[in-house]
Structure formats: C-alpha cells, structure tokens
Amino acid sequence: MIKETTLAAVDELIARYPALSVCREDLLAAVRLICDGYHGGHKLIVCGNGGSASDSEHIVGELMKGFLLPRKLGPEIAQKMQQVCPEEADYFLENLQGALPALSLVNQVALNTAFANDQAPDLSFAQQLLGMGNKGDVLLAISTSGNSTNVIYALQMAKVKGVKTIALTGKSGGKIQSRGLADVTIRVPDDETFRIQEYHLPVYHMLCIAAENEFFGE
C-alpha cells in the first residue's frame, strides 16, 4: 500500500502546474509503478536523448542521494560498517545517505560508443536493457516526440525482460502512445519541444519527491 502522503505529491504538482491536471491518472500510475518497484527491491532505469539525456542524469542524481528529506542510514548498515571499517564508520555514517537505486543508460560512454560503432547506434539502450534489466525493474523512457527510435527499442526490450515501463512524452505521445509501448505514458500538454521539456522537469521532480517520501518520509 502506497502512503497517502506519497500520492499527494501528484496533486501538489498539479496545484503548481494546473495544465498537468490532464495527466493526473497517469502521474498517479507512474508513482505507484516506481514505488512498487522499489518496495520489491528493484531499480529505476532512465534513458533519453539530448535534453532528455540530461534529464536522465538529473533524475538519477535526485534518487541516489538525499533530495528534500534527510536519509539517515539504518541501524543494520551502521552496525555492519562498525564491524567492517570501524575507523571510517563514523565518517561514513555522517556523510553517506540512503539511496533509491537508479541507473542512467546515457552515461555509459565507452559501451554506447563501442556498440554504436561495432553494431547499431539505435540499439545501445536496448543492449543495456538486455544486459541489466531485471523483472520488476522500472524503465522511465523520455522522448519529447514519442518517436525516438532508440527509446522505442529500449521500451520493447524492457518488455522482453519483464521490466515495467513509463514513458514521458509530449501531447501526442507519438509512436510510443499509438503503439501502446509503455505501461504508463505521461503526455504533457504541449507540442513544442522546449515547452514539453519545461513540463518534464517538474513532473520528474515530483516522481523523485514521491519516491523519497515513500521510503524516507514520516
């Protein structure tokens, strides 16, 4: 059962960005998918191109360390640190933070360039999903047009591997929407690339806020 305060992040977002009210049900579904994945001990995988590649990195940065809430480490890991590295344990406990496992597919420079050169550049994300995607993981695939070929292939490979899928697109949703390639497609209400990206940022911030609250909130 997802916390009510976690789901409330969606309506808090819509209060600030009323135009996103058309996405409410998909936003709630995305929060549930991500939190269910983390409850099951799985990870979030993120990919996109250009500005959306930068968004992928941004999302991982918000999840793998504290965002809005303190993330003190629990007694079990603290005890293990005291046993394994007693001299450094206090330093670790003072500075390390609880993490929500997240992986960006865009920062694997050596792999992506080698695969693009040796095999097929539009299959680099799919290759990583094939190698690292596990049943129960969640893929957040970002494409402003909904037509990015490498993102579409990533979504298809995610399905092959039993990975749940969320797409973040513009208003039309492109081929991702028309072909039903994602379990959840959040289609923000604009068709212009830069304005789509301006909506994407508060949307994925909300997803990070919700996930953090679920696992580190009161």
Summarize the structure in words:
This protein is an alpha/beta fold and 218 residues long. The chain has 2 domains: 4-64 and 99-216, Rossmann fold (3-Layer(aba) Sandwich); 70-97. Helix content is 56%, strand content 10%. It has 10 helices and 5 strands. The chain has helices at residues 4-16, 24-39, 51-63, 75-84, 86-95, 109-118, 124-132, 149-161, 174-178, 193-216; strands at 44-47, 102-104, 138-142, 164-169, 184-187. Helix 9 links the parallel strand 4 (164-169) and strand 5 (184-187). The mean pLDDT is 98.
Question: Descriptors for this entry?
Answer:
single chain, 218 residues, alpha/beta, Rossmann fold, 2 domains, five-stranded parallel beta sheet, 10 helices
Helices and strands in order:
Blueprint: H1 4-16, H2 24-39, E1 44-47, H3 51-63, H4 75-84, H5 86-95, E2 102-104, H6 109-118, H7 124-132, E3 138-142, H8 149-161, E4 164-169, H9 174-178, E5 184-187, H10 193-216
Parallel strand pairs: 1-2, 1-3, 3-4, 4-5
Helix pairs in contact: 1-2, 1-10, 2-10, 3-10, 4-5, 7-8
Instruction: Tally the helices.
Output: 10
Per DSSP, what share of the residues sits in E-state strands of 2 or more residues? 5-15%
What CATH architecture of the largest domain do you see?
3-Layer(aba) Sandwich
What would you report as the Rg, rounded to the nearest angstrom? 18 Å
- Taken together, the total number of domains comes to 2
Global shape: globular
Order of helices and strands: HHEHHHEHHEHEHEH
Give the helix/strand class: alpha/beta
The level-1 CATH class of the largest domain: Alpha Beta
Mean pLDDT: 98
| Euclidean distance between termini CA atoms | 15 Å
Number of strands: 5
- Low-confidence segments, given as residue ranges, are none
The CATH homologous superfamily of the largest domain corresponds to: Glucose-6-phosphate isomerase like protein, domain 1
What level of helicity do the residues show?
Answer: 55-70%
Q: What's the story with the biggest beta sheet? A: 5 strands, parallel
CATH topological fold name of the largest domain: Rossmann fold
- The largest beta-sheet arranges its strands as 2-1-3-4-5
